Predict the structure of Peptide deformylase.
Amino acid sequence: MILPIVAYGNPILRKVAEEIDPDYPGLEQLIADMWETMYASNGVGLAAPQVNKSIRLFVVDSQQVFESMEPDDEDRDKYPDAPGIKKVFINAYIKELGGTPWSYSEGCLSIPKIREDVQRPETVTLEYEDESFELHTETFTGLSARIILHEYDHIEGKLFIDHLPPLRRKLLQSKLKDIASGKVKVHYKMML
């Protein structure tokens, strides 16, 4: 089932999400609904707070980024994580950040029609549980690391705009206000 995406301004996007255990009610269906919602919204990642659940859960599919690149696309060789990942992350915590910070234009389903260059570390080592609650410690790089860090921010109550310089954030205030008041129209269902 496609779930509505929580829009900027909703307080759930600013809460630090809670850990869950295997007994969390309806978890398997929630994960399936998050995948369906993410794909229907043309996203590459989706965190549970974005579907109004304040829990430490997010999904990432960076494979589709690489699949959508043309074979002769010069960016294809720029990212060391090709062909990407498709994973569920539960109760994730960052263990280490590394590499040279780099800039990339990010957007967010909860903050539609705004894209900004965001600096993020090149690699992230994450401790997380998969959908079977098996514990993993894994290092991610490139676009996969960036998407993970973006989604991880959501479970920590942060948004990509928090990484922008104060003046840039100030310049976005009227657009953000329009999103929070429901004036921005998108092709997917949003929830204020």
Remarks:
- The mean pLDDT is 95.
- Residues 5-191 form a domain with the Peptide Deformylase fold (CATH 3.90.45.10).
